[in-house]
Specification:
Order of helices and strands: EHEHHEHEHEHEEHEHHHHHH
Strand content: 5-15%
CATH superfamily of the largest domain: NAD(P)-binding Rossmann-like Domain
Shape: globular
CATH architecture of the largest domain: 3-Layer(aba) Sandwich
CATH class of the largest domain: Alpha Beta
Largest sheet: 8 strands, mixed
Radius of gyration: 22 Å
CATH topology of the largest domain: Rossmann fold
Strand order of the largest sheet: 3-2-1-4-5-6-7-8
Number of strands: 8
Structural class: alpha/beta
Helix content: 40-55%
Length: about 325
């Protein structure tokens, strides 16, 4: 039997919380071939989950994003009436409850009691770090961490893996491997900070956007246009560090030298003092040069432009299709 013929074990996910993100995770894991059990304490929510799962799968089918019939994927999702049933035999348990410490604390105590010893227990928390709702006195505290997704994760595949100081390295690495198996792109967050990476970046943009509206610089619609038709176009292809690395001949060090003082003045206007020190710039530049040696800069710029051309062509075609409708 060849390496390609070796079958992976069927993974099992327990989802605690049947709201929008719980449903989205159910779809994500089911798309990866996992067996999924969803629990929500509200009977109305439990009754709604199957139809919501199927509706999302039908939309994916309509856009040509499913490789198998929607009914086959939906068949891998079961709604159960207890946490014990959701966590039984699970490899990973994802808590998708509201952003309230007392609720998450109670759920993690129950999940730790009912889930098998090998299961990783994760929270979809957007802002709260694990150490806010899991205490080291919890027997299984070493297998608890945050796994915060983009929403919906079946379309935005990044998931932030945020261990607490007491989370074991084994649990962290198992979580990374499991989410990668599920088709997501895990990012390890090196320390617990409120909002992690996703929402801290989003928050920085939102804070400035609100200030620009407040100060009469631009309207809400114009700011959204700048993001949608400008920064959003670029950031859908490459991130902010690679953007400035490719925007300036000589790379990111050259950009920091030429543009850093202007960004520092803009920050000072908002009462921020976070200078791009030579040491910090050198640290960032070193990581960029590992990812892209300068002798490959021209070729990568060409790649970026072609990626944007593909995006522009898609948007033009979709615009024409919308007009035809």
């Amino acid at each position: 039997m060849g390496a390609d013929d070796v079958q992976r074990p069927v993974r099992r996910a327990g989802i605690v919380g049947g709201g929008s993100i719980g449903v989205a995770f159910a779809v994500t894991f089911a798309l990866a071939g996992w067996q999924v059990r969803v629990f929500d304490p509200a009977a109305q929510r439990r009754e709604a989950v199957p139809a919501e799962v199927r509706a999302r799968l039908d939309e994916l089918t309509r856009f040509g994003l499913l490789d198998e019939p929607a009914r086959d994927v939906a068949a891998r999702v079961a709604v159960v009436d207890s946490i014990e049933a959701a966590t039984a035999d699970a490899d990973l348990v994802e808590e998708c409850a509201p952003e309230r410490i007392e609720i998450k604390r109670e759920l993690f105590e129950e999940m730790d009691r009912t889930a098998p010893p090998h299961a990783v227990l994760v929270s979809a928390s957007s802002f709260l770090a694990t150490s806010k709702f899991v205490d080291e006195t919890l027997r299984g505290h070493g297998r608890c961490l945050v796994a915060h997704p983009g929403n919906p994760p079946y379309l935005i595949p990044v998931v932030e893996i945020v261990p607490a100081p007491f989370t074991s390295n084994d649990a962290t690495q198992r979580a990374i491997a499991l989410f990668r198996e599920a088709g997501l792109k895990p990012v390890l967050v090196g320390k617990e900070v409120e909002g992690f990476v996703f929402n801290r970046l989003q928050g920085a943009v939102l804070r400035e956007a609100y200030c620009l509206v407040r100060d009469g610089v631009a309207s809400v619609d114009d700011i959204d246009t700048v993001m949608r038709e400008g920064l959003g176009m670029r950031w859908s292809v490459i991130g902010p560090f690679e953007t400035v690395d490719l925007n300036t001949r000589g790379g990111i060090a050259s950009h920091a030298q030429k543009m850093g003082p202007s960004y520092a003045r803009m920050g000072a206007e908002r009462g921020q003092h976070d200078p791009w020190t030579p040491e910090l710039v050198g640290h960032v530049e070193a990581q960029r040069r590992v990812a892209l040696p300068l002798d490959q800069w021209e070729a990568r710029v060409g790649w970026r432009d072609r990626a944007l051309m593909n995006l522009a062509r898609y948007r033009r075609e979709r615009g024409q299709a919308a007009n035809d409708d």
